[in-house]
Amino acid sequence: MNPTINGASIGRLWLRLGLTVMALWLLLYYNSFPIVLLAWEPANTAVGVALGLYLVWQPVFLFLRMERWWSLALALLGVVVAVVGSMLMLGMVVMVGAEEAGEFRWQGTRVRSILINGGATTDYLLELRQEKAIAPGLLLVRSLGGYYGCAGARVMPTKAGLHIHYEAMPDSNCHLRPEGEEIRLRRFVYF
Q1: How is the chain split into domains, by residue range?
Q2: CA atoms within 13 A on the CB side of 96
Q3: What is the pTM of this model?
Q4: Exposure check for the chain: N or C terminus, fewer CB within 10 A?
């Protein structure tokens, strides 16, 4: 057994691996599966920024710990990439804004429509999500979809879910059908 490997370093390795897997899972599967979020949006933003910075900087620290000449060169290159990536991510957090566009209750859940402003060069995104409180301060959230360029869309509740209607304008980027779109909501089977 290598004398430099001990139980504490293996524990730190498993912790790093766990944080990386959790961050990647949140990034990749947010739109596919329900996830647990905090009820306070600024806390979710802070956790997202922390996980994003962790993913950007983790390879740099990994290469620095190897103590080889080539790993130092890779770490220096990684610092340049990590600084640029961190600046881009923090800039996006500052530029992107979200505001509540509507909300209604459906079978013990809350359905929210949120307008996300992507900055000066993009159009608004209408995001729909279904939320259920599972504990004080924790929400189980399912993304119902995002509709780019549909800031003026009306979301109306129906018995089976919701109906989205948008009166298209000539220069609109919204790709909803003229008759609107039905979204069937599902009950949360977890709680």
Answers
A1: 7-95, 97-184
A2: 13
A3: 0.67
A4: N
